[in-house]
């Protein structure tokens, strides 16, 4: 095969075979296809698209570029969950222990923060000592002992994805549904799962802003999962406002602990038990999603879900004292509060800017080498549709960077829109696909 002819073929809108895709991807990993040639292929794929068979082929080639875990020695269905990312989205910290406590095996390979969105690994690593860099033998051992494990992508898992993603990031080809699908599914399938629950975000704080684009991504992910004979369900969920109230790494651990201990954080708990209910159903521990949801609620109520989170943290070397007493966690040097200046209803919020404000305070990375301040972040109190009275507490900010407080406050106050008229709260779950 010839690299230039394959680039031309895709440029002209023709479909590539799995062998042709394998030639390009494996050639790039092995250094036989140059950066500029593979960048040209990515742009051709971005502009011309890949059909569902090409997307499945791309996923397969990326998947088998590294190790695929064999979890057949572990009894029961292995079910994972993937979220496309949002602001305040800490559901993995809640649903993994719930599903594991229900008897489902949950081998979870998670990611770090990306742009304005937080990452599960960063949140877990805010717990002192918590290891997300387990090797594959340790990975299997913890799944066997705890029922779940939460780690990052290792060098052995889908190495083609790491290389390709880095190139997509600098060639303006990130927002391609087939390329996103290949990246997500190659990592998930490498973990040896039997099924997957998808949480595809939509709205101002999501990578997919429109509902149509979110549905298209969900369908692509479902088609690819089914082409590998995996059980799959997808939820399209709202990201037009932060999920829960706490944004920032340990702040989100804190809120997750509160939910696991039975505190009512309405939107966060509702979505978490819905997703864990779907995992319990796909894991054959419930006859329906609805039964799975009721099991999830009971596991929170009887304390078994929180106990499982403590068990997971111990197994991955984390200091559990901060789970039993999260108020003892180190505090930020600076604390500011934004108050409402008039009465009204919260009409809308640009969730992207709220995420960027948390990043400004130190809760994320602005460059590759930035160090995250695990204490930093904010508490965002109002929800769209809430009645606000003058003087009500809207947002609390936490940071060690005194010089960033004013800019973060301006970012937040500039994207809150109030009205005198009553406003409906947006539906949390927009659509369910299976």
Can you walk me through this structure?
The chain has 434 residues and is α/β, with parallel strands linked by helices. It has three domains: 47 residues, Transferase, Pyrimidine Nucleoside Phosphorylase, Chain A, domain 3, CATH 1.20.970.10; 246 residues, 3-Layer(aba) Sandwich (Pyrimidine Nucleoside Phosphorylase, Chain A, domain 2); 89 residues, Alpha-Beta Complex (Aldehyde Oxidoreductase, domain 3), CATH 3.90.1170. Helices cover 45% and strands 15% of the residues. It has 17 helices and 13 strands. The strands form four sheets. A four-stranded mixed beta sheet has the order 1-4-5-13, with helices on both faces. A four-stranded antiparallel beta sheet has the order 6-9-11-7. The radius of gyration is 22 Å and the shape is globular. The mean pLDDT is 94.
Structural class: alpha/beta
Instruction: Using the coordinates shown, work out and report the CATH topology of the largest domain.
Output: Pyrimidine Nucleoside Phosphorylase, Chain A, domain 2
Beta content comes to 15-25%
- For the record, the CATH architecture of the largest domain stands as 3-Layer(aba) Sandwich
- What is the number of domains? 3
Q: What is the distance, rounded to the nearest whole angstrom, between the alpha carbons of the first and last residues?
A: 38 Å
Structure at a glance:
This protein has helices at 3-11, 18-29, 35-48, 52-63, 91-101, 120-125, 136-146, 159-169, 177-190, 211-227, 249-260, 266-282, 289-301, 304-315, 321-324, 351-363, 405-413, and strands at 79-83, 106-110, 148-152, 195-202, 231-238, 246-247, 334-339, 344-349, 377-380, 387-388, 393-399, 416-419, 429-433. With 434 residues, it is of the alpha/beta class.
